[in-house]
């Protein structure tokens, strides 16, 4: 018994060391960007992996240069990204959770077809539809921060419906029947009974969708009128030689500013991710 315990403890120690090393490799790019955001741009190219010293350290000058660089204010990009992310995640959560509840409870042939179409949308490469999507968005007037919400809803619905459907199937239908007997209609049953029970998956899907939309570059670049509306990734890309030069220090600084909110958001909500995914995988 002692030998078995020692063997198990050693295995855990080895796994801890291995995964710690892997974690360091994953975090190292962020650390490299962070240290370079405080260095002279000339030193970033010649000494990208060295720590700032008396010769290369510039304090927060790169952050100031990045924020006030060019004629498009950075705060406007932050507000546009925030608006798109918050509104899109809200629409995705409400629409897909209601859709998943309906598909799970009705469960006829049409609902099964719709469900499998949602699943199929998860495996279609974005590159197959991006040119058609760009043209369609222009024709329909979806090239605005509020129009792109509809586009994101279409692309984000597949994963959300899949996770919500799996969780709804684990909810005893007797709870909803009891609410119906008490006189609750479909909307009252969903928002008053089903939605509170779906909270773990609700939060989990919200986190995953938020991280995707906040960091997304390609879809806003193809859909939005970038002369008027720029998200943070597009704003950072425009610093790359858009005015005749590339200010690596400013780019590094804005990258750090863009990932700080999402890192904080992730750490605050990370405990709900695994809980929500496991809950949604109870039944297929």
Structure in a nutshell:
The protein has helices at residues 2-36, 41-46, 61-67, 74-106, 109-121, 130-140, 148-168, 173-181, 186-197, 199-215, 218-223, 232-238, 248-269, 271-280. The chain has 284 residues and is an all-alpha fold. It folds into 2 domains: 2-65; 70-280, MetI-like (MetI-like fold, Orthogonal Bundle).
Mean pLDDT: 84
- Overall form: globular
Radius of gyration: 24 Å
Low-confidence stretches: 280-284
Count of alpha/pi helices: 14
Largest sheet data = none
CATH superfamily of the largest domain: MetI-like
Order of SSEs: HHHHHHHHHHHHHH
Description:
With 284 residues, the chain is mostly helical. The protein has two domains: 2-65; 70-280, MetI-like fold. The chain has 14 helices and no strands.
Q: Which SSEs are present, and which pair or pack?
A:
Elements: H1 2-36, H2 41-46, H3 61-67, H4 74-106, H5 109-121, H6 130-140, H7 148-168, H8 173-181, H9 186-197, H10 199-215, H11 218-223, H12 232-238, H13 248-269, H14 271-280
Helix pairs in contact: 1-13, 3-13, 4-5, 4-7, 4-10, 5-7, 7-10, 7-14, 8-9, 10-13, 10-14, 12-13
